[in-house]
Write a structure and sequence with these properties.
single chain; 296 residues; alpha/beta; Spore Coat Polysaccharide Biosynthesis Protein SpsA, Chain A; nine-stranded mixed sheet; two-stranded antiparallel sheet; 11 helices; 35% helix
Length: 296
């Protein structure tokens, strides 16, 4: 069972500027909670119990969010605000550990994952979740991360989560090349390769990588030996390509829906999706949307 997940949160979030100038992009809220909390909840729902935040000195707000705030909790308890108190205490379940490590230099996603090596070790598989992307599991019996973990455990192969994108937009994404037929939603299939932002006419499929990975601890020595690639950074995809050649890597095709919260329109779409079904604010939010839509 995969019990550990790495969340790289050290980046400056330039796509979210100016909002992310003083606030970590991961702390920008979707309705009533920050993006990072949704991602942690996704991991916890899939059985993850150790969350490793690879962070930066300017991102202490993320660590504080998952820490206990004794004075605030005592104040809420004294005022009888038990519902809000329980909501705060449930941010991190009692059996879940939040662990922080620092990325001292911005040397790329591969380097960020490598910074978690002392916590994960070289002999244990783990998940990597990029917090820019929300993976919505509404209506599913289990979330896609749990499905991908099941595929990892049954096949013994590393997994990359993918989703279908319009064929004319493949040039925007990392696109996988399946070996044989593309896997059906909720299933996994072997890869022949991965192409970063291919030309439309040269794309091997329309299945894009979305920022969820299941990897063996043996990728850490590979990352340590990976030279700087694109952007003079250590690229996770370079190490995964070596892993694919030596051990094989599968693509898990997700069933849910993603929202790219690192992009303004993706962030707004996430607010619409999560806001309309919020147990407390959903009905009122839908009425607001209808009112503004009618004004157009």
């Amino acid at each position: 069972m995969i019990r550990k997940a790495v969340l790289p949160v050290a980046g400056f979030g330039t796509r979210c500027l100016p909002a992310s100038k003083a606030i970590p992009k991961e702390m920008i809220t979707i309705v009533d909670r920050p993006v990072i909390q949704y991602v942690v909840q996704e991991a916890v729902a899939a059985g993850i119990r150790d969350i490793v935040l690879v962070t930066h000195g300017t991102k202490t707000a993320i660590e504080n969010h998952f820490d206990k705030h004794f004075e605030l909790e005592a104040g809420l308890e004294a005022k009888g605000k038990t519902e809000l108190l329980e909501e705060l205490r449930s941010i991190v379940p009692a059996d879940v550990n939040i662990i922080s490590v620092r990325q001292p230099e911005p040397l790329g996603l591969g380097h960020a994952v490598l910074c978690a090596r002392p916590v994960i070790g070289d002999n244990e598989p783990f998940a990597v979740l990029l917090p820019d992307v929300l993976v919505d599991d509404d209506g599913l019996s289990r979330n896609d991360l749990a499905g991908m973990i099941a595929a990892f455990e049954s096949s013994g192969r590393s997994q990359i989560m993918v989703e279908e994108v319009p064929a004319e937009l493949v040039y925007k994404y990392g696109i996988v090349a399946p070996k044989g037929a593309a896997p059906a939603p909720g299933s996994s299939g072997e890869l022949e390769g991965l192409v970063e932002k291919p030309a439309v006419e040269e794309a091997p499929s329309n299945l894009s990588v979305i920022g969820r990975y299941l990897l063996p601890g043996s990728i850490f020595p590979m990352l340590a030996e990976t030279p700087p690639g694109a952007g003079n950074e250590i690229q996770l995809t370079d190490a995964i390509e070596r892993l694919r050649r030596e051990q094989g890597v599968n693509a898990y095709r997700m069933q849910g829906k993603t929202y790219d919260c690192g992009h303004q329109l993706g962030y707004l779409e996430a607010i619409l999706a999560y806001g309309r079904r919020h147990p407390r604010y959903g009905r009122g939010f839908i009425e607001l949307v209808k009112r503004y839509a009618a004004e157009d």
